[in-house]
Amino acid sequence: xxxxxxxxxxxxxxxxxxxxxxxxxxxxxxxxxxxxxxxxxxxxxxxxxxxxxxxxxxxxxxxxxxxxxxxxxxxxxxxxxxxxxxxxxxxxxxxxxxxxxxxxxxxxxxxxxxxxxxxxxxxxxxxxxxxxxxxxxxxxxxxxxxxxxxxxxxxxxxxxxxxxxxxxxxxxxxxxxxxxxxxxxxxx
Length: 188
Prior knowledge:
The chain has 188 residues and is mostly helical.
């Protein structure tokens, strides 16, 4: 009789242990997926950051008196680079918004120089930036989907207990600001 109770207790402990281990492993995989998707967002933001000086220098050749716009872009790029290094989603969101604002002012400058829009270097860079913006949007979507997955799993019972014990916390979404929701007005 004692051995049957002991076997029953042992079976319950093993069952709870294997549920814990399975849940723990699943959370670890999901957490790693979020981190990998965030790294892809950072990668694409860095790619854009690397393209911007070439874009700005091409425009500078035509618009030499627009110094303030170029200064604002340089400052916003620098701030974004620092934010990416900090791994702080909120800081990256804020500095991305500032860079987007500076770039929209640059696009207004571009409108004033029709000959610039015909320049082959400018068109190639513009295409590269457009492709990069699409990659950023895809990377942000993938990141937010992985955040949604892990956050929704963490909020369920008993997974919430395993998450708390293992130190896995809910992650922040990469959201756009109200300013970024408004499409810039560009006329060619």
